[in-house]
Fold these 2 entries.
Entry 1:
Amino acid sequence: MAAQEISVHQLAQCITCHAWSPDHSMIALCPNNNEVHIYKLSPDRTNWEKLHVLQKHDQLVSGIDWSLRTNRIVTASHDRNSYVWNQEGSEWVPTLVILRLNRAALCVQWSPKENKFAVGSGAKTVCICYYEQDNNWWVSKLIRKKHESSVTSVAWHPNNILLATTSTDGKCRVFSTFIKGVDTRDSKAGSSSDSRFGEQIVQLDLSISWAFGVKWSPSGNTLAYAGHNSMIYFVDDVGPTPLAQNVAFRDLPLRDVLFVSEKMVIGVGFDCSPMVFAADERGIWSFIKYLGERRSSLSGSKHGSQISGAFGKFYGQSKLGASNDALEPSRSRGGVHENCINCIVPLKEGGSSRIRRFSTSGLDGRVVIWDLENQEDLSQYL
Amino acid sequence: MAGAEDFVEADNAEAIITRIEHKSRKIESLLKQSKPVEALKTALEGSPPKTRDERCKSANWIAVHRAIMAIKDVDGMFSTLDPEYYDVLMKYLYRGLSTGDRPTCDQCLRIHEKLTEKAGLGCILRTLADTVNTV
């Protein structure tokens, strides 16, 4: 992998989440505190200038999403509130959204039409928020009593109605979020639009441990999510009779996933290197390779993933990293990211749904931009 | 109603025990023919027994333990043991380590080291995270 295909930016000590402006010139990120920092890349693409600091939350910001068309930022925080930020002149003006939660908000995402957003929370609920013109106010509608534990991730189906969630009760669920007056009954959306608000379409009980990082494929036909037991799950025909595939992999669990095409998924997590999964022509998913592994193998044993060092001590010798490299010579961990990656965001090219670039951020405070354009071995899946 | 379910469970347990006894005899004969890896594969097949019955789990563990202790050449074992056995073998290694028995722990640690190299940390995580299909 040539150097220009990975660009690494050290923007903080630790980053909990990040999001890009519609034209990708600015990035909003939370440096592991109650603030959101907005940086702009200088025209010569060498350094970052801090433009704004959004200060309104009282506690850690756990989710940021920047809408593509309406240029609004939504943030969710452990302080149990959300803010929608509108740019007025050179200022970002916050509007409080009272989520009516009694536990932390954990994740947030704009719906594809950007007229709603979903917040997952530690209160075992999902909030669907929409703007009420009459009252000039964001209203939060709750989906209660469906989750048995915290909601770790939310993902919108392209039809703007269905919402997938993952939870620490190990389950992945799909709900209808149809709101009268906001959504219109659309014949194209099929049977899904007939459901009432909060109706559970399906509950997937594949994982036996915490589930994280759910995403839909670009067409909305396939769903992927990760389990905390080093498994990733792919589900086709989401509905009454879903078709599921479990893929086990050899390294530490994933925190988030991203579909770059119908047949290819990038998984990021505790292993520090993004993993590529792809479906063959029969639709069977498997692990393909790690991204960013052609780094000097020296760093491999030194940084390792987080617990391999501890295992080295356990065996009375720090050779685990080395022996892993011996098995897979090109494999070295910790070259690009040096700690758990907890966020992956697509960089969509103007107007098209094509994804060739994406960014990752993690506990090492780095934002890394990856480009899949010249990866010949992956082009068949793109 | 609950009584009926218990009966079905107990009946099922008897069938599993019979199967494990049959398996044990096969393991003994394979060990006599000096085929320890074949014996281990036989022991791991059908594990964990699909029941919550502790008697079945213990009976199966005794069979697996017999096969694990007969492994002399750990590297050689992995050249013929298919990856599909890795996850369940890891579960039995942790069961072995939990016994605290010195020779068992020594043997389990030796295999654990090689298995971790082969199957990665993901295999350990799946073992630790699985609270449903315990061995």
Entry 2:
Amino acid sequence: MADARTGQRPRIVATMGTVIGIDVRDPDVPETAVADAVAWLTDVDARFSPYRAGSEISRLARGEIGADDCAPDVRFVLTRCEALRLESDGFFDIRGAGLIGGLDPSGFVKGWSVEEAAFILEAAGARNYAINAGGDVILRGEPEPEGQAGRPWVVGVRHPLEADQIVARLAFAASTDRRAVATSGQYERGEHIVDPHTGRAPNELLSMTVVGPSLALADAYATTAFAMGRAGLTWLAERRGYGGYAIDKDLRPSWNELVEPLLAAARVAVGPAA
Amino acid sequence: MPRRAIAAIATTALALALLFSFKTPAGSASALGLPGQVAVAPAASTDPGSAGNGPAATTPAPTRGGTRPTPRPSVQAAAPTPVAAKGSGTFTGSVVQNPFGEVEVQVTMSGGKVTDVTALQLPTHGRSGFISQAVAPILQGEAMSAQSANIDIVSGATYTSEAYAQSLQSALDQTHG
């Protein structure tokens, strides 16, 4: 979309096995804030990645160190992941023979660390920004604070089979609240999500998109609800503030009531697709 | 079968369908290629239709932001206003009552085909926990092309750093930059 924003270009950084775009739309946020956010994300990747032999997670998985030897934020992540395992009846599980190194907290770490990166931007004054971490989004404010003031952020949900199309638009009215959109599916990286109860890849859905206030939780909930299949939306309805938009294997969309106003707002905000 | 009869049937069918569906505003009937939606009760809920406007005992806790319920398909249909010759024009259906309130729909037809359905009146109160589902799947080619969708950002399953170059988000980043 052509727009009249006056802020700097989005900063694109390859880390955590994907590409993260940091898009600050405030004109007066120093570039050092974006650099600090990038440095934080790079540090998290080095310490939490199960794909890096020297990371604390890998050393923990090999038994070289104990949980007490880990940094406070590593212990925090492990604690939160255990809480999510219990909350999800075992569907969200960072431990298992099928996981790299037997311990892979990536399903929480990416969303959590990107949310922390958003706090870094906000500490430097950012109020209008979006970060897209490989398809998982956190945003605040509005996209054109100095141009078309009041225009909402509009997030497109990718078509699970056709990479150049979107299946839904979600509009987030300008707000001081942070909002997150996270999507899980197997169409980009193969069957990396496993239903821990069956040991097999879930096959009822092609994608599950979760919206809510926290990207850390939205990311973990998307993985969880995707693994649950059709029951995922019902499970999400019990998570206060969170909702889902699912595409099943027959390409039929369904969504929680919480998502309905976002779909409606997109139709009002940007009109029908051309 | 005469065209007029076909149009009348189509209109009635749409009016029926709209008891449990509502569409995009006029002009955007196929914005998502979604022909409508139905509400399905969550598995944890008992028959929600019997609960009237009050919360069902087993309904999950309310979620924030969801204020508009999707009407349920358990309501009798009201016949729409008569169909004009050759099945063209805009027709307003009767106001019907469902467990969440009153629903009124408008059907636009052209040349015997339904071109748009708009909800004129929808219940403004409701419960959380309901799940809406499109009546039909998104057919290939029906979805929006990203170029025409006026979006700022794309959510999808996590792409690899190698796949980013071919992603919609990459295209958007180049446009925005």
